[in-house]
Amino acid sequence: MDEITVPTPSPHAAGASRGASGRVGPTADRRFSALPGRPGKIIAIHLSYASRADQRGRRPQHPSYFFKPSSSVAASGDTIERPEGTELLAFEGEIALVIGTPARRVGLADAWDHVAWVTAANDFGLYDLRQSDKGSNVRSKGGDGYTPVGPTLIDARTIHPDALRVRTWLNGEIAQDDTAAGMIFPLAQLVADLSQHFTLETGDVILTGTPAGSSVAKPGDVVEVEVDVPGGPSSGRLVTTVSQGSAAFDAELGSLPAVDDLQRTEAWGSREAAGLAAGSSAESGDLAEAGRFEAQSPVSATSPVLADALRAKLEAVPVAGLSAQLRKRGLNNVHVDGVRPLHPEAKLVGIARTLRFVPNREDLFASHGGGYNAQKRVFDAVGEGEVVVIEARGEAGSGTLGDILAIRAHARGAAGIVTDGGVRDAAAVAAVGIPVYSAGAHPAVLGRKHVPWDADVTIACGGTTVQPGDVIVGDADGVVVIPPGIVEEIVDAALAQEDEDAWIADRVAEGHPVDGLFPMNAEWRAKYDAREGDRA
């Protein structure tokens, strides 16, 4: 093919594979025509823009990454196939950095000096395959054509990295528009951080993450990405057309595509955009995006809802007392019925993290029961102080968890597990030590009665509705669900009632009859109030 002209590398990029003229020699593969050559490594970051973090409701403390194969690179004007039997091919417009000189353990101040060029990229991902990838993104983001790059390079010497802008159009309509100044992790930090772990070599490409607005592209759609400095140099528009593939995945060779409402929400950007009813939905986080599908806690265990003092109060008051106060406020349907504790002596206090099973149907179990299913995602994601609450429809004819998952929850710092279904390996689960409430023991695995379906949605457990973020309290009497907005009021009232009941019990022990004392009449109330005044 004809030679192409690209910017001359900056003086610090003396190791780049081109001469002083800045011309690249002929290449046999059009896919890499916008780059110095075939990149040795393509490294992509999971989440880097504040706008995307705000959209997903969580912000990572540190950058995390994955690799994409160089065989996924495509040129502007190429077509990408959406495989047969899939629905969630998502585009992600990004700024791509091309390394000019090798970088190994470089500092933040010097990191940008190792970047020779900047261009546009589209980090396509097939969300139908994310669950089976378990975070590697090998299949979901490694397909042929899934990394279009180009069409031209911007000389890194000529721009300030924070001035870079990335925009994406879907069928001519703007979908993404943000600048590098809106990144959580500056571009130079990504270079410096990666260089701590391995050598960034000449020609390596770093995909620096996508802002809010990423969504799904369908066959026939045209996606365009441009990186520029407003009023300055531009990569030009990187154009990709989506087509419908005709080859299906072979179930005998590996896992098949599978989608659920979580993946639809992630791919489209919101439940509303995905055509789903508005409501609570766990959007995995960048831990989910990082492949661990570790959704942000609906209510953090460090939030005021369960501050240490409040948690201590909940641990001190019996469930029966909390139940009485809830009933006084008209909440009669807040008890998880039909469950019994494996450790009656242990108190359970935590924030609900929900998991829903649906009745087993063989075709649905084939698509949702294997791989990194909803059950595994929840137990991998449960946070410190949270309670995994499982809807199993009161069907105890199958286990809903076993000792491995109980160990995982315990290792994650979970406060406990509540299921209105069965527990498998009950003795081993009990030995883990984590508080577990269930409808009984059963030796069968999930596939006999249940399909793990979705997580962090409103569920029904033991006849009561449980939402992510509800406060769960259990003891030997059972489990109650407390709406987080009234938990402080409920526990303070219950503690006050406990103190009053203890005083009454002492009077009964002294020989007084219960008539007029329980509940207290005016005479006894005056005595109790006087005692309270003396204590004050």
From TrEMBL:
Keywords: Isomerase, Magnesium, Metal-binding
Binding annotation for substrate: 402-405, 424
Chain intervals for the UniProt region annotation (Disordered): 1-32, 53-72
Obligatory cofactor(s): Mg(2+)
Domain (Fumarylacetoacetase-like C-terminal): residue spans on this chain: 42-242
Pfam families: FAA_hydrolase, RraA-like
Residue sites binding Mg(2+) per the record: 425
InterPro entries found in the cross-reference section: Fumarylacetoacetase-like_C, Fumarylacetoacetase_C_sf, RraA/RraA-like, RraA/RraA-like_sf
GO MF, one annotated term: metal ion binding
Gene3D superfamilies with a match to the protein in the record: Fumarylacetoacetase-like, C-terminal domain, Ribonuclease E inhibitor RraA/RraA-like
Low complexity: compositionally biased ranges: 13-25
Domain of life of the native organism: Bacteria
PANTHER family assigned to the protein according to its UniProt record, in alphabetical order: ACYLPYRUVASE, FUMARYLACETOACETATE HYDROLASE FAMILY PROTEIN (AFU_ORTHOLOGUE AFUA_1G02370)-RELATED
NCBIfam families in UniProt: PRK08245.1, PRK12764.1
Name of the protein in question: Homoprotocatechuate catabolism bifunctional isomerase/decarboxylase
